[in-house]
Amino acid sequence: MSRSLLLLLLLCLAPTGAAPVLAHPGHEDQLKVIEQALAKAPGNQALYLQRGKVYGEIGHFDEAEADFARARELGPAQYADLPESIMLYGKGDLERAMALADRHIAAFPDDPEGFRHRALIARDAGDHERALADLQTHFRLQARPSPGLFVSAANMLVASGRPDDALAVLDQGLEQLGLVPQLQRQALKLELASGRLPAAIARQESLRTVLRDSARWKLDLADLLLQADRQAEARTLLAEASEQLAGQRETPARRALEAKAARLAEALAD
Question: Do residues 119 and 134 touch, judged by C-beta distance below 8 A?
């Protein structure tokens, strides 16, 4: 796959408004810009791929398929497989989406996006083993995968009755991405569900710096310490958190934390 053609494919797969040729984020504006560009370059495959992507996002599936068909006539046909599969996935046609995803991966076996996309199709089709295998390939090919994909993999493993494997996937994400609170909190929940309170406390303590010693962090740790019958430490954190909250402006988030602090104070008083 040449560098220039790879760039064209990436442009067609870019999030809304991210492609350099598009000046505005709205779908209507995107379509206008693409149509103006097509008037000047009617044989440009990438423009048809991009317009097909936009049509798919707004549910104009017939127009999208027509653009992908035209793109196949104007350049290497395999470059339309992934964007058309993404459109079909959005349409709910999982069988056709999977067939095109398979074809894309066969043509571009080192493309992490292809494996990410096929994993989503397999997940929605109920084939968790295939989805997990594709996610692992995506994690290997993509330097910094989305943390949400590790959570998705963990959720599938939990649903399959494999909580320890789910925890291993989350730890894999933490090793690859660094201390991401989203992953550590998910792992903490699994530790608690498995009755490993000390491990849950250790995971919460690891978040101190990344969460900037926040009142929420202190209350969450105080809650865990209370469960572990470490009341003195829990009281100290509760007092520190309450002092921090007193200096913050009134917001729904602050009120929710104050309510949690009140519940902890009541539990510590028992």
Answer: yes
| Last-in-domain residue among 112, 142, 172 | 142
In a domain, 17, yes or no: yes
Confidence of residue 25 (pLDDT cuts 50, 70, 90): low
For 91-135, write each residue's pLDDT tens digit.
999 999 999 999 999 999 999 999 999 999 999 999 999 999 999
The model's pTM is 0.84
Phi, psi (deg, nearest 5) at residue 23: -90, -20
**83 neighbors 52 (Cβ within 8 angstroms):** yes
Which pLDDT band holds residue 26 (cuts at 50, 70, 90)? Answer: confident
- Closest to 206 in 3D by CA, of 165, 235, 232, 175: 175
Q: Is 78 exposed, middle or buried (0-12, 13-18, 19+ CB in 10 A)?
A: middle
The domain total for the chain is 2
Phi-psi region of 178 (alpha: psi -120 to 50; beta: other; left: phi over 0): left
Q: Rounded to the nearest 5°, which phi and psi values hold at 219?
A: -70, -40
